[in-house]
């Protein structure tokens, strides 16, 4: 089982008070493990509001990006590409986060504080990486937070064509078990690229209802510490 951190000293606003037209719910708090886990269980995730000041914002999109586990669009070419890579889990978590947070990426937002915070979650057993390898070279991957039946995807990257898509395909396969109909694969926002892969939008209230119904599930076998 993952190790429970110290509880957070912060109180997040109740969802009944959230602005129905604003993705940003709160400002402040910290990135301690207990704070992060509390936030994810409430349907929130952190991002810096401004990179210069690194002001911490907590978001719950009005329209949440979710990938139904039976909705991933996999082309024949992607299936062929997947057979040329090796997929591993949790063997290079810090490197995956570093690549996702590379300042060479135009939309990079993962600050050193975020990298350290998710590294702590990983060491406690709550954050995981799905990695795509070409021999000894890390070709792509993704990372996120797993709580019961929730996998909250944070970011992905690729160094080779299709490598991040292969990581997503592998993650979906990991989540497909006897509880797959209740599991939630959260990707925060639907982008055109993610929409092309099958990501749909869920109204906030619907997402929060799905979230509440999945947190009591066991973690997928492929992500458990004892596997």
TrEMBL record:
A Pfam family hit: Leu_Phe_trans
Enzyme class of the recorded protein, top EC level: transferase
Catalytic activity: N-terminal L-arginyl-[protein] + L-leucyl-tRNA(Leu) = N-terminal L-leucyl-L-arginyl-[protein] + tRNA(Leu) + H(+); N-terminal L-lysyl-[protein] + L-leucyl-tRNA(Leu) = N-terminal L-leucyl-L-lysyl-[protein] + tRNA(Leu) + H(+); L-phenylalanyl-tRNA(Phe) + an N-terminal L-alpha-aminoacyl-[protein] = an N-terminal L-phenylalanyl-L-alpha-aminoacyl-[protein] + tRNA(Phe)
Major subcellular site: cytoplasm
UniProt xrefs under InterPro entries: Acyl_CoA_acyltransferase, Leu/Phe-tRNA_Trfase, Leu/Phe-tRNA_Trfase_C, Leu/Phe-tRNA_Trfase_N
HAMAP family recorded: Leu_Phe_trans
Protein name from the UniProt record: Leucyl/phenylalanyl-tRNA--protein transferase
Source lineage: Bacteria, Bacillati, Actinomycetota, Actinomycetes, Propionibacteriales
């Amino acid at each position: 089982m993952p190790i429970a951190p110290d509880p957070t000293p912060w109180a997040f606003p109740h969802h009944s008070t959230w602005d129905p037209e604003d993705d940003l719910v709160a400002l402040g708090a910290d990135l301690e493990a207990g704070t992060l886990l509390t936030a994810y269980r409430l349907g929130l995730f952190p991002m810096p509001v401004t990179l210069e000041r690194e002001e911490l914002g907590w978001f719950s999109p009005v329209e949440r990006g979710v990938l139904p586990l039976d909705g991933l669009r996999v082309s024949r070419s992607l299936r062929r590409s997947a057979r040329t890579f090796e997929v591993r889990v949790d063997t290079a978590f810090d490197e995956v986060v570093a690549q996702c947070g590379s300042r060479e990426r135009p939309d990079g937002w993962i600050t050193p504080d975020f990298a350290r915070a998710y590294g702590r979650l990983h060491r406690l057993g709550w954050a995981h990486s799905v990695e795509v390898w070409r021999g000894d070279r890390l070709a792509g991957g993704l990372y996120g937070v797993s709580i019961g039946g929730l996998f909250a995807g944070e970011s992905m990257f690729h160094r080779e064509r299709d490598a991040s898509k292969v990581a997503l395909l592998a993650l979906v396969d990991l989540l497909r078990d006897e509880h797959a109909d209740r599991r939630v694969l959260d990707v925060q926002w639907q982008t055109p690229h993610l929409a092309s892969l099958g990501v749909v939008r869920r109204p906030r209230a619907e997402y929060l209802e799905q979230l509440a119904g999945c947190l009591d599930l066991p973690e997928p076998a492929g992500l458990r510490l004892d596997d």
